[in-house]
Amino acid sequence: MLIKTKRACVRLVSYVCAVIISLSVFGALEKKKADKYESLVNLSYQQAISGLSSYLDTIKTDLYKGMYASTPAMTGKLSASLLSSSSGALECISRLPSAQGKLYNAYKFLTQVAAFTDSLNEKTANGENISDEEYETMEKLYKYASTLSGQISYAQEMALGTGLNFEQSVSSLSLPSADKADIVNFSDTVDETEESFADFPTLIYDGPFSDNITNKSSSFLEGKTEISQSAAAEIASKITGSDKGNVKFAYDDASNVSSYVFTVGSKTVSITKNGGYPSYMISDVYAHEEVMNKDDAVKIGYEFLNNCGYTGMTDTYYADSDGICTINYAYKFGDVTCYTDLIKVSVSLTDGSVTGFDARGYLMNHTDRSFPENEKGFSAAAECISSRLTPQTVKKTVIPTDSTSEDFAYEFKCSAPDGTDVLVYIDALTLQEDQILILLYSDGGILTK
Q1: What span, in angstroms and rounded, lies between the C-alpha atoms of 168 and 170?
Q2: DSSP one-letter code for 44
Q3: What local confidence, expressed as pLDDT, does residue 77 receive?
Q4: pLDDT value at 57 more than 60
Q5: Directed axis angle between helix 104-125 and helix 132-161, to 10°?
Q6: Rounded to whole angstroms, how far apart are CA atoms 306 and 141?
Q7: Residue 225: which H helix or E strand, with range?
Q8: Does the pTM of the predicted model rise above 0.90?
Q9: Is the CB of residue 314 less than 8 Å from the CB of residue 300?
Q10: pLDDT digits (tens, 9 = 90+) for 316-334
Q11: 327 near 344, Cβ under 8 Å?
């Protein structure tokens, strides 16, 4: 009888242990599932708040430009951008956690700003002028957008850098009331958009220039004699300063700029088949201590371009990052700066070596141009500048459009009331505003928005 009791106890203990182990395993699996689900949810929140931050930055910039737009065409362009960005931001807010109730003011602001600017677009399209009160409202909208953008960026940093979850991060916000902007209620429009990073600061005309590269073929290279692979290797050797024996053929590039591609040590060099023009060079060279300055880099860039056969260029804007200075050179035809015919040269500020260049903008857009004699002139164009801006300098330019064409325009560098430098481009033939850009100065160069 004692033996049976012991066996029963052993069975009971074994059963209990098995149950405990099974529950532990089940609990561990469930916790793993929960952790995985929480990670996916947090990733979704991270994407939403990152997108919201990007959209708000775009809205802030477009509102600032809107304060100085003076034609229906430009007002319409900015209005369309604001509608798109506001709708995208609203969609991002809808994906944030229950703490989004804290974002009520942001939601209210976003549902109003696009409609407000759209009403201005309709007004100017009907030949009416924007009133001083409406400009003041736009300025208030801009200030609110700046504050809101900063707060969202702060929440994003907290979530990524402090370990707080997104509900805690968003709950930490202390947003101003949208009512302070004196905005009238309008109906909102929610429409998905994919232009989250359209407002990222760049060297002037990098954005439109990049589109032109991928969307057109080069008329400049048409009819040029096709060179051999061996001749192209000679050119690659010359521009890199290496023996031809170090130039290794990599592959044929059959893109819209048909080229031979070589490796020369750590560098990759592309030479066009038609005409044998250096197209681009990239490398994995890193800079260390900066012993040179921007002016030194500009001179080295000119020497390099001359060695490549590119003449008639003028330096425009630059950016310095991690000891590498990248300079934009534009072709200059007489007194006209052709931003379309763009070559970028990167120079190490450590030893002055050229670490990279890209001439595809030039190769795609360079052509023999003749400028019309019926241009309106600087004085007439100056009349089209917003009275809220003070023109400082003006010059003739050719700029890329949003499509693959180009416009002959006057570039006015203006000063805004807050001291910001603003570039306004007025079409030299139609006197329409082609573009408004904000200049951003830093120790790392001059960028635009």
Answers
A1: 6
A2: H
A3: 80
A4: yes
A5: 150
A6: 49
A7: none
A8: no
A9: no
A10: 988 887 888 889 999 999 9
A11: yes
